[in-house]
Amino acid sequence: MSRTGGGKEVLSTAAVVVGVGVGVAAFAGLGLAGAAFGAGVLSASAFDSFTARRAKPPLQHEGVKRDEQGYIENWPKVLKAVQDGGVAPELRAELWPLLLGVFPHTSTQQERSRELEQLRRLYIKLVLVCRELDDQLQALRNSTSGGSNGSGTSGGNGVAVANGADEAPADSAGLSVRSEAGSASASALQLGTRSPVPLPGNLAAFAEAHRIIVMDAVRTDLRRGMQHPAIGGRASIGPASGTGPTLTILPVAVGDGLPELMMVGPPPRDPTAPSTEAELAEIAADPGAAAEAGQLPRWRSALAHDMLWGAAHLDDPHRCQMLRLVNILSAYAVHDPETGYCQGMSDLAAVFVQLFDDDALAFACFERLMRSARRNFKHDETGIRHQLQQIARVLRDTDPTLYRKLQQLGAEDCMFAYRMVVVMLRRELPPVACCTLWEMQWAHEAAEGEACAAAGGGLGGSSSRASFRQQQTGAVAGGEGGEGVSRTSSDGAASAATATAAAGLRSTVHGLSEATASARAAAALGQRPASSGGRQSGSARLSAAVPDGSSGEDQPPEFVLQFIAAVVRAQRGRIMTDCREHDDVLRLFNSLQIEFWPSVAQARKQHKAYVGLGAVVRG
C-alpha cells in the first residue's frame, strides 16, 4: 500500500512511531566498515573491463523519442533497450524516476514538474517531523539534566550519551534504548542515581534509528562513486564554480584621478550546506512556497553535527553529502515505521543521493525501490529467505548436479548469497555494473506491468506485475467455492502429454530441467506431479521461507535473482572441485570477482526460460 500521499499522519508527531530494525547479527557479514563503492573500485582498469565485454550498448538520448511536451513516444522500445544494455550515464537522472514509477511514463514534462512539487511537499513534512522529534528529545534531555550549553546543540558527553554512547560520566544524561517485545518502548533517561524517567516510545525509537543512520552514513564513502562520469550525476560534489566572494568595482571621481573603490560581498550560499535555524523556520512556516521554490531542508541534528563535523578526516563537501543521506534515511524511517531503518539501507540510498541533486526526488526513488526491497529487512527474515529459496530453485532447475553438490555441502539454502540479495549486489559489483543491473531489473518489471495492463484491461503497478507473473507460470486458479477446472481423464492425459512435450522442448533450448517442465505442465492442468520420494526443497530453512510451507514456485524469479543464480553457476567448477565443506562455499563467495556481462547473458537466458515456459504451457 502506498504511503507517499500520507500528509495528515505525517504532521502529527504524536502518531509517528518510528520502527527500528537493527539486525546487527543478521548483517554481521555485510562488513559495513568499508563500502565497495569506494574510490578504489572506480579504477580505469575496472571500468575498461566492464565496457570491453558489453553485449549491447546502453540506451542513448537518441534512442528516446519525445514530443514537444516531453512525452516519451516509444516507451516499449525504451524498456527493451534498457533490458538489453542498461541506460547511458547521462540519461539516468531522467529515466530512473520513470523506470521506478515515481513519474508515470505517460506524463509530460510539465506534469512531472507538478508531481515533483508534490513530492517536495511530502519530503519537507517528513524532515520537519524528524526535526521536531529531535527537538523533543533535546528538550527532555535538557530538562532532565537541568540545563543546556545554550548553543542550540548539546555538547560533548551529553550528546554522545544521549544518542547511545557506551560510556559516559555518571553525572551526565544518558538515553538507553533497548528492545522489549519487539519494540523500543522500554527506553528511559537516567541521571546519576535518580530513578529512570520514561521516554515515549516514538522518541526512543526515533533516537535509536537516527543514531544508527548517522553511524552508517559516516561509514559510507560518498566522495566518489556515482560522481564518476561513466555512471552519472555530477562531476564533483563541491560547490559550483563561481561561488567565491563577489567583487564590485565602483569608479569614484576624486580630483583629476579616478581611484577605484572595491566592495567585497559575501559568497553565495552553498545549496548543499546545512540549513540554518532561520531557514528551517522559514520552510516550516510555508512548506508549500518552499516546495514551489525548490527550497528543501538540510536538517542537522546535534548528533549529526558532532559525528560528521567533528570528524577531522572529512571535508565539508563530504559532510554535506553524508547529511543528505542522513536526512533521506531518517525521513524514510518516519515514512515507513514498520520497517524503520536497518543496516544496509544506506548502501541502497547512497546511490540516489549521488545521482540526484534534488533530495525529494532522491527520497522518492529510494522509497519506490524500498517497496520491493523492504522485504529484505523484515525482522523474521521471511522475505530474504524466500528470495534465497528462489535462487536455490533456479539452481535446482538449471543445474541439478551443482545443486546436489550444494546439498552435500549443506549449502542448498544459498545463505552464501545473503549479502548479494540484501543490498542487491551493491557490494559485489562496481558502481557502473550495479546501476546497470538495477535498471535492467526495473525495465523487466515495467515491461511485465505493461504487458499485464494490456492483457487485463489497464491494470498497472505492482499488482499487475504479480498478475502477469502468475499468468506466465500457467497456473490455473480454481472457481468460486474451491471448485477447479474439470476435465475428462482422456482429454487430461492427452493435454498433459502435449503440454509436457512443448515445455520439454523449451526447457532443452533454455536450460530448464525436464523434471521441472513436466511438473509445471501437470500443475497447469490441475494435476499433482508424481513424487520422486526424495527431498523436494532442500533444507528445512528453505521450506520455512514461505509462510504456508509451499516452495514459492507460483512466480518466476526476478531478474536480479536470476543474475545471482548465474553468478553461482559461473563458479560451478570451483564448487565441484575445491569446496569440501560449507565454510569453503562461504569463503568462495566472500571474495568473488563477478564477470558481469557473461552473468547477464546467462540470467537473461534463464529468465526467458521461466517466462517463456509458462506461455508454452498455457498454449
Shape: globular
CATH class of the domain at 61-90 and 380-453 and 555-618, named: Mainly Alpha
Q: Which stretches are poorly predicted, pLDDT < 50 over at least 5 residues?
A: 1-49, 147-197, 234-243, 458-520, 522-552, 615-619
**Could you tell me the mean pLDDT?**
72
What would you give as the CATH superfamily of the domain at 61-90 and 380-453 and 555-618?
A: Ypt/Rab-GAP domain of gyp1p, domain 3
Cα separation of the termini: 34 Å
CATH architectural name of the domain at 61-90 and 380-453 and 555-618: Orthogonal Bundle
**What's the number of helices?**
25
Q: Share of helix among residues? A: 40-55%
**What summary fits the major beta sheet?**
3 strands, antiparallel
Total strands: 5
Helix-strand sequence: HHHHHHEEEHEEHHHHHHHHHHHHHHHHHH
Kindly report the CATH topology of the domain at 61-90 and 380-453 and 555-618: Cyclin A, domain 1
Enumerate the strands of the largest sheet in spatial order, edge to edge or round the barrel. Answer: 1-2-3
- The percentage of residues in β strands lies in under 5%
| Class by alpha and beta content | mainly alpha
Radius of gyration from the CA trace?
Answer: 28 Å
Features:
single chain; 619 residues; mainly alpha; Cyclin A, domain 1; three-stranded antiparallel beta sheet; two-stranded antiparallel ribbon; 25 helices; 52% helix; 4% strand; globular; disordered N terminus; disordered C terminus; Rab-GAP_TBC_sf; GTPase activator activity; Rab-GAP TBC domain-containing protein; Rab-GAP-TBC_dom
